[in-house]
Amino acid sequence: MPYNPSVKHKLIRDSVRHFAETELASIAAEIDRNAVFPVEVIDKMKKLNYFGLQVPKEFGGAALDSVSAAIVVEEISRVCAAVGLCVTVHNGVAVFPFLQFGNKRQNEKYLPRLASGEMIGAFSLTEANAGSDAGSVETTAVKNGNDYVLNGTKIFVSNGGVCNLALIFALTNTDQKQLQSSVFIVESAYEGFLRGELEDLCGMRANPVSSLFLENCRVPEENILGKLGMGMKIGMTTLDNGRIGVAAQALGIAQGAFEAAVKYAKERQQFKKPIASLQTIQNYIADMATEQAAARLLLYRACELKDAGEPYGCEAAMAKLYCSSLASKTTSLAVQVHGGYGYSKEYDVERYFRDAKVTEIYEGTSEIQRMVIARAILAKLTL
Amino acid sequence: MLQLVVCIKQVPMVTELPWDEKSGTLRRDLAPGMMNPACKHALEAALQIKEKYSAHITVITMGPPAAKEVLYEALAMGADSTILICDKIFAGSDTYATSWILAQAIKKQCANVDLILCGAFTSDSETAQVGPQLAERMNVPAVAYVEKIEVNGKTLRVRRIVDNFRETLEMECPALVTISMENYLPRYVGLGGLQRAFGEHQIDILDAAALGVGVGDVKQEGSRTKVRQVFLRKTDKENVFLTGVAVNVVSEFLNKYERKISTVIGKSIEGKNRTNEE
User: Fold this and answer.
1) How many CA atoms lie within 13 A of B157 on its CB side?
2) What DSSP element (H or E) covers A373?
3) Which end of chain A is more exposed for a tag (fewer CB within 10 A), N or C?
4) What is the total count of domains within chain A?
5) 168-207 in B: which are within 8 Å (CB) of A?
6) A166-177: per-residue pLDDT in tens?
7) What's the complex ipTM?
């Protein structure tokens, strides 16, 4: 357990922080306001391996351990959560399933293009009637010759507006008694792959979240990830990993809001002294710092278990639950510390406050995380 | 292939550190370390030479074991090999002793060096002395505050800005340059490079014994600089507000400051016309 960061982890944090502060800090508010995906910065990130965090070297990736990957997402999100979302979705739930389930041919074809960022990935499970209940997807894939023909609508797809490749969950057997889902690798260039308008969301506005429409979209059979019928398994495994990413993102948002609050508390004078000298503000700062330290350990524990090849689903759910709740709480307190100014778009904490909320919702709501944790605990014979 | 040596230093991440008034040294423990910005520009210059002319880059730093961090960063950016000069007896060395130790390391490990690159100055002590001193120790020509380097065989053409003039100079290898922060903007550190730095490289560590350096050469014995006193500049001036009726304010002003005013204008105003006003 990394109670003290290793030299490597410190250097990765410093390097990503330097990049994010240089490239993203000055545009984060503007791209949020105008809902603009920062293509130029993303292009720079591609060259620095941000899109192949854990992809093996032979496919052009950085081959980072999971703590390092989490640190990358934390540090980008600390400055700009919407870009952090792009990175964590791409790496955590679009690339990761290839590493776990992709066959040699699929990996050779897609991993180099994903790792270089030539292709930006998305993961499409959610539908209008299938959110927390992942078993209710209605998109279908019907075999036709050597292809499958996909029909359906996916909603709230992070990176949806810019993705070149989406992993689509579809039913390959709609018989209620033998319900079966599979995951298809769908390139945006395939005929019948259409994007909807970008969503007008409360936070993460610089990420192009959109719907995806599959209208008689023909996908070659060889693009079934893993095996036919492995949809649920791939989905659940991928979500476990995705939760580490969202936890890291939430922690980064909390860190950014916390730093802003501490800085402001030292500068802001009321009653002829900095408000940081007031005990109430000091209590806020102490609680934020303590809970963040705890959250970080919880997150890195899940990462280390994952890298050790041990089960980590429960720990990832704990990390996601705790970090996302912390993000909401910390950003709310950071606004409070800023007073009226915190409610203004002039200060970054207003953006952090809006960005934080969705971390309690996507990649499994907090209610679902509690369900995952409770099930794991109750299944244990000894505690 | 050109043999390049880049000397770098780990400095605290904040620019203004408190002093330890007793020892006269900076409280470096209060801030995490980073590669000195000008040193990073020097490394970038070396990397661009490597890309253009083909070269082998050895990066050297002297410091505590924690200074390994900046060497890993240098490897991640594209350096080929690294040396950490590390020994407790080196602690407290001034620029005079430091340049001597660096010279011993370069002579021992990189005897066929063509060009030594240093940052023009460090962000913590800003003496700008180590580079030029090292050139003296190595007995090679040196140009400080360089912003552009061209290589033609073993001839170097370097450009620098001094006193608002742009100067272009030529010298033969082996030579030394100190790099200013005008140009050679350091590249970002790629994540793959960082992973490789830790996975595939090894940092050579040289201590005093390996360098054949004795206590007398370094530390306070080998240091020519003695820090007599360290103090924070304090301003004890305060604004004085004179209020009231104008005539009284002027009178009070003259009473308080007539000597200072006399000094400034160069003639006495003492007692002048004071009675006329009354």
Assistant:
1) 6
2) helix A366-379
3) C
4) 3
5) 188-196, 198-199
6) 999 999 998 888
7) 0.87
